[in-house]
UniProtKB/TrEMBL annotation:
It comes from the Bacteria. Signal peptide: none annotated. SMART domains: KOW, NGN. GO terms for biological process: DNA-templated transcription elongation; transcription antitermination. Keywords: Transcription, Transcription antitermination, Transcription regulation. It comes from Kushneria phosphatilytica. Residues 118-145 form the KOW domain. Residues 8-107 form the NusG-like N-terminal domain. The keyword Disulfide bond does not apply. GO terms for cellular component: cytosol. This is Transcription/translation regulatory transformer protein RfaH.
Amino acid sequence: MSTPEIEQPRWYAIQCKGGESFRAAEHLTRQGYKLFHPVIDIERRQRGRLHTVREPLFPWYLFICLDRISDNWRPIRSTRGVLKLVAFGNTPIPIPDELIETLRQQADSVDEEGREHYFRPGDRIEITEGPFRDLEGTFLERKGEERVIVLLDILQREHQMQFGIGQVQRANRS
């Protein structure tokens, strides 16, 4: 006589309403569901200054771990921010645990790199303010949170110069 196989909780994708994945994640977490909502920190320039903004890695999606038998699936569809469970017909599609683990690892590395390497060594940088405005140089490194070191070619000599992070931008390639 064989014993029935016990089904383990599986991961499923939830499609969220536009721009509401954070809201959906918050409400589902309050209801006690286990979620994975990969986010990354992106540096955006606003009014000449860089600000770190947290954005979803998949803007319309998040992942939920559910047991087909013991979890109540009904409240999910009526949760604020949720559009639907991703399904084939009426059957939600399970996502392999390995894929979720890979996404977790990649989201972690993107998060670390996104903040740390907005500019990468060797990137062409344009100075946007001050006496060196409109000159291009090569990004060398960050100096704390608010400063960068750029290599400029001035009078046929290379000079390392410090600039505020708000004084530089990636050079446009034409």
